[in-house]
Each structure stands twice: as C-alpha cells, then as structure tokens.
From TrEMBL:
It is an enzyme of class 1 (oxidoreductase). One of its GO terms (biological process) is bile acid metabolic process. It comes from Ornithinibacillus sp. 4-3. Belongs to the short-chain dehydrogenases/reductases (SDR) family. It comes from the Bacteria. Transmembrane segments: none annotated. Its EC number is 1.1.1.47. This is Glucose 1-dehydrogenase. NCBIfam families: PRK07231.1 (NF005559). The keyword Transferase does not apply.
Length: 244
C-alpha cells in the first residue's frame, strides 16, 4: 500500500522546483493531486507528464476567488480534500532601504497572505471530511534572520501555523510548518550562484545543500497518517545550519 493511497491533495507553486518535486512524490505515493501555479506552460507540461490523477489549475495564490475555484475543481475532479501544501513563495534580495513599499507588499501577499487564504479555503472541506493535514512551507529564515521581506513572511508562516493548529485541532485538522535550508534547485545551480553556494556549503554542518526530494520526503510524512499526532510544530531540514 502506498503512503497516500485514497488521499486528495492541493499543492501550490507546483509547476517547478521544490513544488514539482512534491507533486511527483505525492502522485507516486498514490495521491490524487491538484497543483497550482501562475506558470501555465510549465504546469500543463507537468500535468501531461504525470497522468490522469494529477491536474493543473492556473492560480494567483493571493486571490481569494482563485482559491475558491481551486477547491471547487479539486472536489469536482477527485472528491474530499485531505491535504493542502502551501508551497508557493518568492524571495527578493534588496536591503531595507532599497525595497519599495509595493515590492514589500508583493512578498507579503505571496508568502504570507496566500497561506491564510489557502487554509481558509480548505478548512470547510476538511471539516466536512472530519480530517485533514495542512503543510505550510516556511524556511530556515522563519527561525533565524535573513533577507528583509522574506524573513518577515516566513516567520509569519510559522506563527499562523501554530495559531491555526490550536484552532483546528478539535476538527481533526493538523497544521505544521516545514523549514528548509538551501535547496538544490535551478536557481542555485546556474550562473554565478554556483560558486556562491559552493562557498556557502562550507558553513553547513553536513557540507552540502539539500536535494528537493529530501524536502519532499518530509512534506510527505506530514501529509500522511504517519504523523497523526504532530500539529503546530516546525520541522527543520537545513543540514544543521540553525543548530549552530
């Protein structure tokens, strides 16, 4: 028996990078998956690659109406929703003084408000089913300082995870956050970033960055019934960086 047999999952930001890794693993483990992204070309290609139990829906995660559309399409296609993975997010490398108000609000909308909207959208469906697992992707920068905007919102994801877990526990809905360190995605394996990451890896106790699948395995555990008594907690996967 596969670890997610019979379960229905929504995964945001799933067209590429770490999100695509989550989508592929969930499908391999028996889940029916609706994944969303703003990149329609990549999303449609991944849908075609993975077959009939995986569907792509174009979504702006900062738009409440889009969230209602995703929930409705998921229930119409596959039935009751068991899992939500709030994976969509962005970063921006600008200092406090360089960043404009509109740039800051964009990070807040995508990284933080989308998590609130996603949970609000799926909770009624999960309540009807009497169970559910919500996994919010934060960052190691939801535990320690980093870039302005990114760090702020990732701390907020950690906070809303705990608040929601307290409110939703009696409904059988679990909420946990995942805090990855540096992940081996195209963003860090191309161009000038290669040497930067190589140098940075020397400061990681495990002396390497994580592969996307390693993070996906942790997300899978939290989505599955194997983590049935875990809620309101942060799960760190950073090679030991924040242990220092």
């Amino acid at each position: 028996m596969k670890r997610l047999d019979g379960k229905v999952a929504i995964i945001t930001g799933g067209a590429q990078g770490m999100g695509a890794s989550h989508v592929k693993l969930f499908a391999e483990e028996g889940a029916k998956v609706v994944f969303t992204d703003i990149n329609e070309k990549l999303g449609s290609a991944l849908e075609t690659e993975l077959g009939e139990n995986v569907k792509f829906v174009k979504q702006d995660v900062t738009n409440e109406s889009d969230w209602q559309n995703v929930v409705e399409k998921t229930e119409a296609s596959f039935g009751a929703i068991d899992i939500l993975v709030n994976n969509a997010g962005i970063s921006m490398s600008k200092s406090l003084l360089e960043m404009t108000e509109s740039e800051y609000r964009k990070i807040v909308d995508i990284n933080q408000i989308s998590v609130f909207l996603g949970m609000k959208a799926v909770v009624p469906a999960m309540t009807k089913a009497g169970k559910g697992s919500i996994v919010n992707i934060s960052s190691m920068n939801g535990l320690v300082g980093g870039a302005v905007g990114y760090t702020d919102t990732k701390f907020a994801v950690r906070g809303i995870t705990k608040a929601a877990a307290i409110q939703l526990g009696h409904l059988g809905i679990r909420v946990n956050s995942v805090h990855p360190g540096v992940i081996e995605t195209p963003m860090v394996t191309q161009g000038d970033a290669v040497e930067v990451i190589k140098e940075f890896s020397k400061h990681i106790p495990m002396k390497r960055v994580a592969k996307p699948e390693e993070v996906s395995n942790l997300v899978l555990y939290l989505a599955s019934d194997e983590s049935s008594y875990s809620t309101g907690s942060e799960f760190v996967i950073d090679g030991g960086l924040t242990a220092q």
